Amino acid sequence: MVVIGAGIIGLAAAWWLQRLGHAVVLVDPAPHGPQPEGSGSSAALGVLMGEVFHRSSGRAWRLRQQSLRLWEQWRAELALAGQPVPHRPGLLLLAADAQELARLEALALSRQALGLAMELWQQPALEALRPALPHGALAGLFSPRDGQLDPLAAMAAFRHDGQTRGLELRADRVEALERRNDCWHVSLQGGAGLEAPWVLVAAGLASPALLAPLGHERPLEPVLGQAAELEIGPELAAAWPASVVWRGINLVPRPQRRLWLGATLEPGLSADPARWSALRQLEGAAPEWLAQARVQRHWQGLRARPAGRPAPLLEQLEPGLLLLSGHYRNGVLLAPASAAWAADVIATGNGSLTCR
Ligand SMILES: Cc1cc2nc3c(=O)[nH]c(=O)nc-3n(C[C@H](O)[C@H](O)[C@H](O)COP(=O)(O)OP(=O)(O)OC[C@H]3O[C@@H](n4cnc5c(N)ncnc54)[C@H](O)[C@@H]3O)c2cc1C
Prior knowledge:
By secondary structure, the chain is an alpha/beta fold. The chain is built from ten helices and 19 strands. It has helices at residues 8-19, 59-80, 98-113, 123-127, 151-164, 207-211, 234-239, 273-280, 288-292, 331-348, and strands at 2-4, 25-28, 47-48, 87-95, 119-121, 139-149, 168-171, 174-180, 183-188, 193-196, 199-201, 220-231, 243-246, 249-254, 258-262, 266-267, 294-306, 313-318, 321-325. Helix 2 packs across helix 10 (331-348). The longest helix is centred in the first third of the chain and has 22 residues, at 59-80. The two termini are 14 Å apart. Flavin-adenine dinucleotide binds at residues 4-10, 27-29, 35-36, 39-41, 43-47, 173-174, 202-204, 206, 210, 225, 227, 262-263, 301-303, 325, 327-333.
């Protein structure tokens, strides 16, 4: 089978299918990385918001729950194979105003009713974390099962372990897909072609252009995100309990006294310097240390948001043709559940081509 796109979604699917015994070719102009500009995965912060989510039923909730479980299993498996994926458990959501506090309190109650551990941290608990926290935090919701992992390490782990299992990484760009003689024909920019009974389109924002000639309109809108790596003092690096979320902005502690800060939400393709400046100042709530922290790296990436449909797009479009795209803000979280969805569809054999 052929997987198109070596972002976190394509890599997770290719690794998982190869691990289940399928022969997989993964095609991307840069399958070994770094990803081309305008991709999402290499810009991601890796925050896994599985349980701090406003719903507690439905497809999105189930995908999130499944992904949290699978990430735990997959990380253990990859570590055994010598490909550890650094992970920090826990997320602390801070309430910046009374409305958000009420929302977090309601969320804590609904999760506790499901038997899920979530703690509301009042002022005394937060006091112990000052001055690391943004100004004005009223309370915090600590979710121990959520967390953060390193997306680049995860992608490298899928690549390396996949290759030891026989996964083929092909450096090329897919130009066109065509169904002929009960088989998918994949034309590559380099002139070669591939044939396969299953094709998985995981090309992020480029997916619609591959599908439109087949009559499948699945528009995706780009939403740019800016993020940065800051250098912080040793006392702050030690004070941090977990990744922190403040007004939708993530503060992610990293090794060697670094902190990731991000990300802006900017519809379109170009970065707005004013949004970067607001992010840098935590929208006016930046404590002194944050305002003074040195920026080591500032980057941007694009998320793919489905137009008029809920994220993500996980669909069988035709016999042997699967779409895994439009993961918008949660591609890192949802990569395992997306791969498992594809594996389930393929296992049923419904709509499989013969390629004879
Ligand atoms: C700043 C930022 C922060 C984020 N933070 C988080 C986070 O904390 N947690 C989280 O869960 N998500 C986060 N996300 C979202 C997440 O990054 C995306 O949902 C995810 O990366 C989508 O992965 P993907 O594999 O679908 O797409 P991409 O990573 O964009 O990969 C698409 C791949 O397809 C390839 N491709 C394109 N066209 C072709 C073609 N014709 N032939 C072959 N290959 C092709 C490209 O080269 C690329 O490698 C963040 C995103 C951004 C931008």
